[in-house]
Amino acid sequence: MVYLDNHSETFVCGSAREQFAAALDGTSTAVLASASAKIFDLVGAHATDSFVFTSSGAEAIQQVHWTAFIELARKEGKCHIITSSSEDAAMLQSLKRLEELGCFIKIAPLDAEGRVDLEQLKKLIGPRTAMISMSWAQGLTGVIHPVEEIGAIAQEKGILFHVDATYTLGKVYCSFADLPMDYLTFSGDRIHSVKSSGAIFAKKGKPLAPFILARPIDASSLMALAAAASQLALSQDLMSLEVARLRDVFEEQLAASIPEVQFLYQNSLRLPNVCCALFPRVHSEALLYMLERKNVKASIGGAFSPYLYRLLTHLDNICAQTALSFSLSRYTTQSDIEKAVQCIVECYQTLRPLTEDLTL
Fold it and tell me: Is residue 294 part of a domain?
């Protein structure tokens, strides 16, 4: 299979597998502390920052939101939380639960470049705003949000800022200690670790209410996450150079073979491994189905992600439903790209005549 859906999940790297299995036989506290240090290094956190290992990225997000509810909404009446309109289910479902507890969720829209609209975001901030909680980048479109500018706004207004870095770790330089954010979370299964792993970092002095009291540490999953973090740190240059080159080659070869194809957000700051493309007059679900039969995996979102066409608010609905997202990893090869392009071209050429006189 040519796997170009690393937005949804990633293969578990060999190092993570080995450490996971080894830890089943017992791991000392000193070894766990050393493992945690590797995760600190990956995100650029300070030794005085708080760190919590979680069972998933979803749990990490929920603990941050629980903290906002316990420490600000319940005690101070600050019950408004702002997020973006491009979030995954883990973020939205957690915020939905807070709504049931009496909080109010405000949604910041995206601009034409797929980024959070800063002017609209500012208008949503009020005296009862407790937190801005959002992802650093949108995994399907690859667009990176201006978190430094948003963090500066949050600091100026005296509100907490939480960033989920699930899609950016290992692809965008991260120095949590230096960035204007209070909380950083991520999921292990998007950085080549096991599914049962995630993490929270909180700046020194920021509240962090326990989500699960007296929860034992899953040593195997922690060791796997640390191994994946170590490998991710070593491969960051590979992601920003070689994987970005392969993504560009992919786009160039597709454009040469399918002149009608349109690539979105090429002029935006985007992740080095993501390509979002429109295939005019061919419905994305039909193209995705045919590609999967040829063992090429892409994505239109769904399940735990928003549907891609719903993120493309600057396009009309018919055009948006021709979009596919491709997400590479450090395991993607030149031959993978060549095979993917060949299969996409064959599928597109098969489908295109069938929709010549049809309205999607």
Answer: yes
- The domain tally of the chain equals 2
Half-sphere exposure of 276 (CA within 13 A, CB side): 26
Is residue 87, in this structure, part of any structural domain at all? Answer: yes
Domain that holds residue 340: 2-6+236-355
pLDDT tens series, the chain, 360 aa: 999 999 999 999 999 999 999 998 877 778 889 999 999 999 999 999 999 999 999 999 999 999 999 999 999 999 999 999 999 999 999 999 999 999 999 999 999 899 999 999 999 999 999 999 999 999 999 999 999 999 999 999 999 999 999 999 999 999 999 999 999 999 999 999 999 999 999 999 999 998 888 778 899 999 999 999 999 999 999 999 999 999 999 999 999 999 999 999 999 999 999 999 999 999 999 999 999 999 999 999 987 889 999 999 888 989 999 999 999 999 999 999 999 999 999 999 999 988 765 454
Show which of 206, 234, 262 is a domain's final residue. Answer: 234
| pTM as predicted | 0.95
Strand pairing partners for 187? 198
Residue 360 lies in a domain: no
